[in-house]
Design a protein that fits this description.
Helix content: 25-40%
CATH superfamily: Cyclic phosphodiesterase
Largest sheet: 4 strands, antiparallel
Radius of gyration: 16 Å
CATH architecture: Alpha-Beta Complex
Structural class: alpha+beta
CATH class: Alpha Beta
Strand content: 25-35%
Number of strands: 8
CATH topology: Cyclic Phosphodiesterase, Chain: A
Order of helices and strands: EHEHEEHHEHEEE
Length: 177
Amino acid sequence: MSHLPDNAPFIVTAEMPGDVYAWANGLRTAHFPPERNHLAAHVTLFHSFAPSLRAELPRELARCAAEYAPPDAQIDGLMDLGGGTAISLRSEAMLAIRAELAERFYTMLTAQDRGGKRLHITVQNKVERKAAKALQAELGPLLEPRPFRFTGLGLHRYLGPHWEQVGVWKFRRAKGA
């Protein structure tokens, strides 16, 4: 990581299985304003961890991934973002893992990351309300509940509008589970 700026904050994501990722990324590519679409589809768990955690965060994410089985999740409909649209996700198991990480790093969390978390995948953002409502009317009837399992935890550095992946740690069952 020595080539990365020392002051770039970290972002932690929940990694999706390939089929869910491809589907969500296709929706994002089709509906996110192209001039602002610098990222692939993702599920953000934490928006901003301090750069000083560059050694500790990977260790803690690796520990969590090694301890937990892939968390059950479900696509749960749409989420209205006001000026955008997201796919709503439900996963009590992933929220429990997030809560454990939040407790571990509580003093390092931003106000945004201390609050409650609604898991989602943004497919459209920063558009006029009329465009967001139109997309929700189009996609709403097409979305059906769909179960899946998160595959891991991802760590990224925020570099302007772009992210650079630092690592991904895959979930696996703990011994004796």
